[in-house]
Design a protein that fits this description.
The chain is mainly α. The chain is 65% helix and 5% strand. The chain has helices at residues 14-39, 55-68, 97-106, 108-116, 121-133, 139-157, 162-201; strands at residues 73-74, 77-78, 85-87, 93-95. The strands form 2 sheets. A two-stranded antiparallel ribbon has the order 1-2. The chain has a two-stranded antiparallel sheet with strand order 3-4. The protein is elongated, with a radius of gyration of 20 Å. The two termini are 13 Å apart.
Length: 202
């Protein structure tokens, strides 16, 4: 078996694998739902959401969706839908556990290679998250640094126009805080995938 492939042992724990994949789907949906909730154009009070128009989150969202629409292939299996993944209209994922169970039963090695093998779903997602979360040059890190710089600049202007500047500063702080929440959720997802990928490849 080539480097990065998953070796299937006798007595494959299909239920455990399905539970693991469901946990991945749940984490993915937590991130997708948070981004959707905080990037909507207006809430019920007709106030713009705190992250509306935040380009970095649109990039993150499209990147996550691109991972799940990739044309992964191993043996006779191709794509993510054959394993039971389905992207919903709201951008979340749904997992058909019966489909995944069938794939694990009929094509165990191919299924695991699409999930956790070299260039499989989990590894591709981990790479995508690294681009976003890198502590030095990640897109989310750089955006937070930019917001922090704007807050610092505004603090210097407060004496000149205290009321309006304070309102804008509060909005930026809320933006910064919500980006931190997204980062925390994505870091949890990245950590989960790192652990999962390591255990699946061992």
């Amino acid at each position: 078996i080539a480097t990065g492939s998953v070796t299937v042992s006798v007595g494959l724990d299909t239920e455990g694998i399905v539970d693991t994949v469901q946990s991945f789907v749940d984490m993915y949906n937590d991130v997708a739902n948070f981004i959707d909730d905080y990037t909507g154009m207006a809430d019920e009070d007709d106030h713009a959401s705190s992250l509306a128009g935040e380009a970095v989150l649109s990039t993150v969202q499209s990147g996550l969706q691109a991972v799940m629409s990739g044309l992964y292939q191993a043996g006779d299996l191709q794509g993510t839908s054959i394993l039971g993944f389905a992207t919903q209209q709201d951008g979340t994922l749904e997992l058909d556990t019966s489909k995944l169970q069938d794939a694990l039963t009929d094509h165990p090695e191919d299924t695991l290679n699409i999930l956790a093998g070299e260039d499989g779903i989990f590894q591709t997602m981990e790479g995508r998250l690294d681009i976003v979360l890198d502590p030095d040059n990640g897109t989310m890190t750089l955006r937070q640094e930019s917001l922090d710089d704007q807050i610092d600049a505004l603090q210097e202007q407060i004496a000149d126009s205290e009321a309006s500047t304070a309102i804008y500063e509060d909005a930026l702080r809320m933006q910064f805080t919500n980006l931190e929440i997204v980062m925390a959720q994505m870091q949890a997802m990245s950590g989960y995938l790192t652990q999962l990928f390591a255990s699946s490849s061992s």
